[in-house]
Write a structure and sequence with these properties.
The complex is a heterodimer of chains A (about 375) and B (about 650). Chain A is mostly beta strands and about 375 residues long. Chain A is about 15% helix and about 30% strand. Classes of the chains: A mainly beta (about 375), B alpha+beta (about 650).
Chain lengths: ~375, ~650
């Protein structure tokens, strides 16, 4: 509707109704569709994460970044909140889940060698970085507009050997859209060890600050020519709870309302003599089906029992039982309709398989994401 | 070439598995999971029309299982020889079809294949989605792998087998975060039934059960036909298929454990009701060396103090900001040069017809160490502006930081006079810091009172002449590049530099994309599926160069070119400063060495270099996410997401 209006009110085009060109009537109708009827206007657009190659080319890796929020983003702020050396991001959306804080896992306890581009079989080198804060003395102390230049050697692997590159970053007080990044510049160094820093201060004077080793956090005070080291004080932002679960470790599930294969309601007692493994699964999930024998191997061991909870569409309930049998699973399997499922999980977000480990009292003692480890 | 379909349909157990011609190597891989997929589709009619699922099949029905027509030898979507030309009719149909694909997407995301079947014609035929032999994986940065499918090798499947092939594509996902079938183009042929040729982009993404990231993108031509007022998919011609994986995400949203999560209702309903967008600012207001956040918001604000232990405390009340509400942009900066971070907040305000102030003024809060004190009146900020972004710097070089205020207009009361050259915004403001705790608004006298619906700006000394220049992103038309003469007086030289970037400017950022030590420019605009669909149907593409040369009395072709630019996406301008390059290593660089008569030349980075397709973009930022020494870009986007993904 919007674009029809844009065209109709800008150029004459055959077949475009004249009403579309009017402004007020159009706007009222358009806003009505959004506010009252709940329609979208360029909605469900995922934020973008583009990786640069240092030559002006970018690769869109949004969909595997973990930071492509589907909400309606406005402000986006970059800061190394946890002081671990890689830049984190705070996002402000206009509605629903408004604030997201993206912990960058390039450096930190979550890093896996195979997840950061390391050559197979070798641990990936932790990349070097330099973090820079500035303070002006001849001008304003914030030194907005100061340009920090970092010169560092790198081998781009084209047989040209090591060459020096120089990257400029500017200290900004406000950029992007309604956003202000933290007044600290984070420079990545790749796998190299050191770098040289210079600053062009807001008045235009160039000042050299000399060599720095990777991992340095420094304050550059105008006129001193020497970086002041800032002590590293990294900390760890904890992982979020498993996405999509509405119950967590420590909560007690003494009983559970379920449906049988015919859709008849039942109430299960989850208090028993040993542990209970509640396995959330569906026939449409390959890993879930593959782990049925492993779940079976855990059943009845030390009084432990396994209970399957199928999240399948009602049409597939018959198949769930058959599939279990075919794969050698003879533990009981029950079903959840939308309402019962909603008490345990957010069906749009829960990742399956997920298995809840309960003690004999029905208290959740572990949430196992992904496949279980089979019994030896 | 293809197995006898009808023969296979007759046996229940063999019905799904061999239905698609699958290249041998892949077939071997799939053996383990085929059974699962087959069973998952039981409701699609595999039981000969009896038993479970019949009721869910909808009017299109699969009741006549077993009378499926033979499959065609090839899947090729027709091209209308006499496409319907009346825009309103075509666009109504396009919207209907687009919304039909939205509904189909939702059934697929829930893996409710029996319901999905109701979107397909009984005689549907399409390229099996998992039939394309995977080529060699391509290694991308950061451990990302991409597999390009060999579309030519894809087998042909009828409806149920085609859905089985889709089920297999979805099987590796533990959670499906998105299945989006977007109509990128459509044309229609009259007749009975009316038929359409539709370009569809499928974007599927989510996580594998072990947390690995996975995404599948496919482009296709689909043939749709209108049956009893409902659009049914009849053909699915796959043109590309790629799968992208990474063993783990790069980012994890820790808002909840960090104590900064905030949830409200839907925009326009139980959630925020105005178009006055809220921002975010990071600074160290308590002086402990850690970065905190101020988040202006509807009805209140959030002052998040970074405790340094993984949590933030919300301390707006304790710091004297309990009454601060509805701010748009915000900035921490040291306005009084006392070494701490003061807080400046933009609001939407206006002067009423009776001369009285409406809305709210800008607000300046002085940091007194333990709390903020409102010094708005004393500092001279009581004027009203429709203010969004703020860009502070010492523009006149007097040693005190000034504030540039990007002003828009009241979206609820004023309409832009044009979509591509509106000048009826409110003038931007430039508050010059007098050094005594007060500011004077001097935008008009300093050549900085642009009134073209400015959303945002970014400051840098782009020509290294010792003063700060300002790039402005204007919403309805040309952007401004305010070049400083050294005294805080500005001239808009955007045209001269080729930086007009006509479009819906939303944001701007300076960064160095090519490690040559000069600053390049990222400008956020929007790219729109609907816009491109409509424009490409109505207007011939503009010749290159038309877009950037605005003038009065422009021709329709020129206007058309600008409209295309409105929907074309973000822009990257690469600075070419050759005199900088050969002085990079070992040669001192001072301002006197940069000839002022040779300012940088900006070249638009071509679209195929990537980084510009970001939908309806807002804030953009340069950052080196992976610390490899190359600047990356992140872009926040999306306008308004409703209850329904159906687009207006």
């Amino acid at each position: 509707m919007f674009w029809r209006h844009v065209v109709a009110s800008s150029v004459e085009v055959e077949g475009v109704s004249s009403e579309a060109a009017g402004s007020e009537g159009y706007q009222d109708e358009h806003m009505g569709l959004i506010f009252e009827d709940g329609l979208s206007f360029s909605g469900f657009e995922r934020d973008k994460v583009f990786f640069g190659d240092g030559h002006g080319w970018f690769t869109d890796l949004s969909s595997v970044s973990g930071a492509d929020h589907v909400g309606d983003g406005r402000a986006l702020v970059v800061a190394d909140f946890d002081d671990d050396g890689d830049p984190d991001v705070f996002l402000h959306n206009i509605q629903r889940e408004r604030h997201a804080l993206y912990r960058n896992d390039r450096i930190g306890p979550r890093v896996q060698a195979d997840a950061v581009g390391g050559v197979a079989g070798k641990a990936a080198a932790v990349p070097g970085f330099v973090k820079v804060r500035v303070r002006g003395t001849t001008g304003a102390p914030d030194a907005a507009g100061a340009e920090v230049r970092l010169m560092f050697p790198r081998d781009r692997g084209h047989g040209s050997g090591v060459v020096w590159e120089q990257q400029a970053q500017v200290v900004s007080l406000g950029s992007g859209f309604v956003s202000q990044h933290a007044p600290e510049l984070v420079f990545g160094l790749g796998p190299v060890g050191d770098a040289e820093l210079s600053v062009i201060w807001p008045g235009g004077e160039l000042e050299e600050f000399g060599k720095l080793s990777a991992g340095s956090r420094v304050l550059l005070v105008e006129g001193t020519g020497k970086p002041q080291l800032i002590e590293a004080r990294p900390f760890v932002f904890a992982d979020p709870a498993p996405s999509g679960l509405r119950v967590g470790v420590g909560e007690t599930l003494a009983s559970l309302d379920v449906l049988d294969a015919d859709g008849e309601p039942r109430t299960l007692s989850l208090i028993g003599e040993g542990e209970t493994l509640l396995n959330l699964w569906a026939t449409t999930c390959a890993t879930c089906v593959a782990e049925i024998p492993d779940l079976q191997s855990l059943d009845d061991e030390d009084g432990r029992r396994v209970i399957g909870l199928s999240l399948d569409h009602p049409n597939l309930r018959g198949r769930a039982g058959k599939l279990l049998g075919d794969r050698g699973g003879d533990y009981p399997n029950w079903f959840l309709d939308a309402e019962l499922m909603g008490r345990l999980v957010d069906p749009d977000r829960v990742s399956i398989p997920t298995t809840l480990r309960l003690d004999a009292e029905g208290r959740i003692i572990e949430v196992i994401k992904g496949a279980v480890e089979p019994s030896e | 070439m293809f197995p006898d379909r009808d023969a296979e349909k007759s046996t229940k157990s063999g019905r799904f598995a061999p239905g698609v011609t699958t290249p041998a190597p892949l077939r071997a891989l799939m053996v383990g999971i085929l059974t699962v997929a087959a069973l998952s589709l039981a409701g699609c009619g595999g039981d000969g029309g009896s038993g479970e699922g019949s009721a869910d099949r909808g009017s299109s029905g699969l009741g006549a299982a077993g009378v499926v027509p033979p499959l065609p030898d090839r899947v090729e979507v027709f091209t209308p020889d006499d496409p319907i030309a009346v825009m309103d009719v075509v666009e109504d149909m396009s919207e209907e079809v687009a919304n039909r694909f939205v509904a189909l997407s939702e059934t697929l995301r829930k893996r409710h294949f029996p319901e999905a079947a109701a979107f397909f014609a009984d005689d549907f035929a399409g390229h099996a989605l998992d039939g394309a032999t995977p080529g060699k994986p391509e290694s991308l940065p950061l451990g990302v792998e991409r597999l390009l499918g060999d579309v030519a090798a894809a087998g042909i499947a009828g409806r149920d087998d085609w859905l089985s092939s889709l089920a297999r594509v979805l099987e590796p996902f533990g959670v499906l975060e998105g299945v989006v079938l977007k109509v990128k183009g459509a044309e229609f042929q009259g007749g009975n039934p009316v038929r359409g040729r539709v370009k569809v982009k499928a974007a599927i993404q989510g996580r594998e059960p072990d947390g690995a990231m996975r995404a599948v993108t496919a482009w296709s031509w689909c043939e749709v036909e209108s049956v009893r007022d409902e659009w049914m998919v009849k053909r699915w011609e796959l043109t590309s298929l790629e799968t992208t994986t990474r063993p783990a995400p790069l980012f994890t949203d820790v808002a909840v454990p960090a104590g900064v999560a905030n949830k409200v209702g839907r925009f326009g309903q139980d959630g925020p009701k105005t178009f006055y967008w809220n921002g975010a600012a990071s600074g160290d207001f308590d002086g402990d060396g850690r970065f905190d956040l101020f988040v202006p918001s509807h009805g209140r604000s959030f002052l998040y103090r970074n405790r340094g232990d993984g949590r933030f405390d919300e301390v707006s009340g304790a710091w004297g900001l309990g009454a601060e509400a509805d701010g748009t942009g915000a900035l921490f900066f040291d306005y009084d040069n006392d070494g701490d971070a003061d807080l400046f907040v933009a609001h939407v305000g206006w002067t009423r017809r009776d001369g009285k102030p409406g809305g709210d003024s800008l607000r300046l809060y002085r940091n007194d160490g333990k709390r903020f004190t409102d010094v708005t009146e004393a500092s001279g900020f009581s004027g009203r502006h429709v203010a969004f972004s703020l860009v502070a710097a010492d523009y006149d070089g007097n040693g005190h930081t000034d504030v540039y205020v990007c002003n828009y207009n009241r979206m609820d009361a004023v309409y832009p006079e044009s979509w591509h050259h509106a000048e009826n915004g409110t003038p931007n403001a430039l508050y010059m810091n007098q050094g005594d705790g007060t500011f004077m608004e001097e935008a008009a006298a300093r050549g900085a009172a642009d009134s073209r619906w400015t959303f945002a700006g970014a400051a840098a000394d782009h020509d290294a002449d010792g003063d700060l220049d300002l790039y402005l992103a204007n919403d309805y038309g040309d952007n401004a590049f305010l070049v400083n003469d050294g005294t805080g007086h500005f001239t808009d030289r955007a045209a001269e530099y080729g930086l007009l970037d006509t479009g819906n400017g939303m944001g701007a950022a300076w960064g160095d994309i090519d490690n040559d030590a000069d600053l390049d420019l990222y400008v956020a605009n929007m790219s729109s599926t609907a816009g491109n669909r409509i424009l490409s149907r109505l207007l011939p593409p503009a010749a290159p160069g038309v877009v950037d040369g605005a003038s009065d009395g422009e021709s329709e072709a020129e206007v058309g070119g600008k409209l295309f630019k409105l929907a074309a996406g973000n822009s990257i301008f690469q600075a070419k400063k050759t005199e900088f390059r050969h002085k990079m290593k070992g040669v001192e660089l001072a301002k006197s060495e940069v000839p002022p008569e040779r300012p940088p030349v900006y070249e638009r980075v071509p679209g195929d270099a990537g980084g510009t397709g970001a939908a309806w973009a807002w804030s953009s930022a340069f950052l080196d996410i992976d610390l490899d020494g190359n600047q990356d870009v992140m872009v926040a986007n999306g306008f308004i997401t409703g209850e329904s993904a159906a687009d207006t």
